[in-house]
Amino acid sequence: MHITLGIAPITKKNHIQIIKVKERLMVIPSKEYKKYEKDCAAFIDALPFTTFDCPVNVECVYYMPTRRRVDLVNLQEATLDVLVKYGILLDDNSNIVASMDGSRVLYSKENPRTEIEITEL
């Protein structure tokens, strides 16, 4: 299955809010990350519905709008959370996402996006 998320990739880790609830601090996703997650729906909803519940390789190629350094693992975490949220992956544990071989970060100022290829193992 091939998925293109046609918006600039962001990390979940670098887009958080710290709030106080009943005298306790909580970390929640930022408004920017929530918007990113919501915007991804437009690209996923157009696809034929498939939920992977078997071991897969999830190859993600991130085309970033700047040459700023970014952690690949943090990008992958956000992508997997989006795929689980919209039902493409049943879960992101190692029984389902068995590998992420081939994932990398590239630069594309004119067309930032995430290209995802999911293949059963």
Summarize the topology.
Blueprint (H helix, E strand, L loop, with lengths): L1 E4 L10 E6 L2 E6 L1 H14 L11 E9 L7 H14 L11 E3 L4 E4 L5 E8 L1
Parallel strand pairs: 4-5, 4-6
Antiparallel strand pairs: 1-7, 2-3, 4-7
Give a quick summary of the entry:
This protein is of the alpha/beta class and 121 residues long.
Q: Can you walk me through this structure?
A:
By secondary structure, the protein is of the alpha/beta class. The protein has a single domain (2-120), classed as 2-Layer Sandwich (60s Ribosomal Protein L30, Chain: A), CATH 3.30.1330.70. The protein has 2 helices and 7 strands; from the N terminus they run βββαβαβββ. It has helices at residues 31-44, 72-85, and strands at 2-5, 16-21, 24-29, 56-64, 97-99, 104-107, 113-120. Helix 2 links the parallel strand 4 and strand 5 (97-99). The longest helix has 14 residues, at 31-44. It is globular.
Coarse morphology: globular
What can be said about the biggest beta sheet?
5 strands, mixed
The percentage helix is 10-25%
The beta-strand count equals 7
Distance between the termini: 13 Å
What is the strand content? 25-35%
- The whole-number mean of residue pLDDT values reads 91
Uncertain segments are none
Q: Element order, helices and strands?
A: EEEHEHEEE
From the 3D structure, determine the CATH topology: 60s Ribosomal Protein L30, Chain: A
Radius of gyration, taken over Cα atoms and rounded to an integer in Å: 15 Å
How does CATH name the architecture? 2-Layer Sandwich
Quickly name the level 1 CATH class: Alpha Beta
Q: SS-based structural class?
A: alpha/beta
* Overall tally of structural domains: 1
The number of helical segments is 2
